């Protein structure tokens, strides 16, 4: 029994949670799957699976091994795909992306991509945190903000983004609209919960010309790590928030939200921000990554709201 068959069987059993389901996927007898797993555990000298009459689960050693096995299988698929003359996207594509942005903009692009390439399977990890691409075996991450200086990742700008200081008409009618960034300190500022704990908003009148940046300490009645929840709180009149233009411009045009301090560029961090695809150098040129990034860039160009 060759090692690749053992690894493939282990990955399928772990993913399916059972030998019978794995056997159906692999097209072999359940007894053959059991023999492959037995040979693998004997060869590496560790128990990888907890087996019962109903379920099969990973041991602690199995969890660690499973991540490595997936990487090996993915790289093998990638090598075969890259070596083929057609370079057709196929295999498993693991994407990490922000929650709200994904449901609005990434999902339609993914569905179109899969309709074009039926041999491509997608694992979409939705998180508003920063994933570790190497540790989590992620092919490509979509990040919103500044690309940073991660030398171990390739960044490709897909679209621009501007953040909007906004609140409901009722909120501004009750407490007044801020005329300068400093006046935000007397407002109920609804803030996004970043991992570093920052609660500062930054403003610049001439960002393109490198103008001075004003930093305002903000606080309010809500701190949450989800942009859609902040939008809902704004619509309900609970305060003022800094939200991405792609999320709230339709509300601004519809009169449900009012954009304050429009003359300023506003951001919680660096002023030069956008929507980026980030991927390891090992994924550069991979057909599945290239196809996804190209499709998403094209989709965003046609669907992101304009600011006029």
Question: Mind sketching the topology for me?
Answer:
Blueprint: H1 3-16, H2 19-26, H3 30-44, E1 49-51, E2 56-58, H4 60-83, E3 91-97, H5 99-116, E4 120-126, E5 140-145, E6 154-160, E7 163-167, H6 169-175, E8 189-192, E9 200-204, E10 213-217, E11 223-224, H7 227-235, E12 240-244, H8 245-253, E13 258-260, E14 265-267, E15 274-279, H9 287-303
Parallel strand pairs: 3-4, 3-5, 8-11, 8-12
Antiparallel strand pairs: 1-2, 5-15, 6-15, 7-12, 7-13, 9-10, 9-14
Radius of gyration, CA atoms, in whole angstroms? 24 Å
The succession of helices and strands, N to C, reads HHHEEHEHEEEEHEEEEHEHEEEH
Measured distance between first and last alpha carbons: 64 Å
Strand adjacency order, main sheet: 4-3-5-15-6
Helix content: 25-40%
In DSSP terms (H or I, runs of 4 or more residues), the helix count works out at 9
Q: Based on the structure, what is the oligomeric state of the protein chains?
A: single chain
Mean pLDDT: 88
Total E-strand runs: 15
Summarize the main sheet.
5 strands, mixed
User: Which residues sit in consecutive blocks of at least 5 with pLDDT less than 50?
Assistant: none
The global form is elongated
Strand content: 15-25%
Coarse structural class: alpha/beta
Core attributes:
308 residues; alpha/beta; five-stranded mixed sheet; 15 strands
What does it look like?
The protein has 308 residues and is an alpha/beta fold. Helices cover 39% and strands 23% of the residues. The protein is built from nine helices and 15 strands. The strands form four sheets. Strands 4-3-5-15-6 form a five-stranded mixed β-sheet. A hairpin with an 8-residue loop joins strand 9 (200-204) and strand 10. The radius of gyration is 24 Å and the shape is elongated.
């Amino acid at each position: 029994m060759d090692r690749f068959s053992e690894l493939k069987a282990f990955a399928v059993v772990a993913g399916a949670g059972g030998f019978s389901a794995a056997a159906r996927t692999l097209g072999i007898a359940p007894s053959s799957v059991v023999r492959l797993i037995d040979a693998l555990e004997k060869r590496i000298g560790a128990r990888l699976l907890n087996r019962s009459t109903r379920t099969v689960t990973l041991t602690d050693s199995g969890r660690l091994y499973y991540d490595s096995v997936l990487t090996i299988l993915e790289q093998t698929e990638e090598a075969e795909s890259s070596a083929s003359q057609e370079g057709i996207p196929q295999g498993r594509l693991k994407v990490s992306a922000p929650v709200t942005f994904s449901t609005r903009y990434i999902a339609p692009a993914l569905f179109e991509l899969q309709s074009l390439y039926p041999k491509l399977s997608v694992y979409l990890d939705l998180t508003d945190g920063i994933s570790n691409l190497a540790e989590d075996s992620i092919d490509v991450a979509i990040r919103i903000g500044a690309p940073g200086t991660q030398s171990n990742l390739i960044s490709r700008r897909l679209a621009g983004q501007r953040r909007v200081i906004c609140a409901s008409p009722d909120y501004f009618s009750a407490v007044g609209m801020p005329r300068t960034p400093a006046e935000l300190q007397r407002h109920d500022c609804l803030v996004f919960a970043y991992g570093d704990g920052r609660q500062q908003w930054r403003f610049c009148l001439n960002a393109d010309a490198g103008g001075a940046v004003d930093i305002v300490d903000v606080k309010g009645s809500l701190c949450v790590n989800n942009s859609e929840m902040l939008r809902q709180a704004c619509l309900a009149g609970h305060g003022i928030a800094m939200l991405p233009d792609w999320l709230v411009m339709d509300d601004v045009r519809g009169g449900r939200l009012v954009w304050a301090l429009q003359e300023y560029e506003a951001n919680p961090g660096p002023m030069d921000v956008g929507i980026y695809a980030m991927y390891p150098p090992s994924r550069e040129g991979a057909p599945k990554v290239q196809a996804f990034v190209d499709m998403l860039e094209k989709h965003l160009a046609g669907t992101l709201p304009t600011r006029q």
